[in-house]
Amino acid sequence: MKKVLILTLIVCFAVSLGAAAIPLTAASAAEASADPLDAAFDEAFLTFAGENYGGPLDTEIIRTPLYDIGLNALGALYSFSLYGEEGYAAVVESGRGGYEVAEMFFSGEQPYPFLPGDMNVFVRPLVYLVYNGGNYYTADTREAVDAETVAALAENAYFGSDSVLNVTSQTVSYVDKTDNEYTLAARFPNIVEVAGYSYACACIAGANIIQYYDRYSANLIAGYTPGMAIGPRYMYSLPGSATDAVVGQLYTDMGTDPSAQGTTVPQFRTGLSTYVTRAGYSVTYTSCMSGTSLSYSAAKNQLDLGRPIALFTFGIEVATLTEGDGADYLNIHTSSANHAMTAFGYRDITYTLSGSATSTVNYLVVASGLNAVGKGYLNANTADLYEALAVNIA
Description:
alpha+beta; Cathepsin B, Chain A; 2 domains; globular
């Protein structure tokens, strides 16, 4: 089969980069395209696959994050299998407030090894690195890349606009561990940044809560099905036009002011109450703070009652975690900017280290609202919060 390279430009804005398996047909593409990042891929994929293979097109697509050489969120890698052949596409920021399909191959395995702790770096077409443990490596041969070479590559590289986050890597090696994770759904709501709404993290946190409760209080989002049950667990739908509209409405209801760089906690409460009351329901709030600190036990109790928690933090420090053989690999995303996000669960890990010492870490499992993170982990032992509100809608 002939290898087809596609270079094209799609003008849209960044949204979710979380990994997802998406069975795609021409009929389902309109739904997938509600996500502008997916829309860039869909347009190129369906156009060229249709011309080369005809239709209908039944395939499974895996989407994973791509980072620029400065380790900022850049876009996504789409890996797919089509009629027995592996293919992939790199969709990246265009530098004009939108995205472009930098490359697409219908015959060829994706270039990244996906080892624990790796951050996949897309430099430019056909130039791929990974970052792990403070070092850059070539994606194919795993050879270390020195600082001088990295600097030279950066002179002709794609760069993302999300430069507010710093990323550091941490490895926790252990002899044994106990791991208890509880979340309110097998896949909880995970809305991230929405085009046209700046400083909207509180609105996004509220929208994630609205989507969660739409499962129980129908028509919080009119005419919308928030997800589906799979056995005893529930899978919430990925973000789309309906959830984007909720963010927009909360942006108005909360009186979010871009010039003030965000939304206050009173504005969050008032605006969310306005939205919920308009839909015919009521909302109550329970603080999970003990003085100026988070009460982790109170937070766990509220989550056990099925209530998500809106978190308001001084700065950002949220991690992704990859499990390996005898080690956990964390990429910790930090910023000095204040932030809001939603906790949908908790995770308690106790490590047995060499020498029989033990270390326990308590996390809140969060929908971070950040393109570069998506689902993440907030260290409850070190988190600096000024409010944590458990929300109940009935």
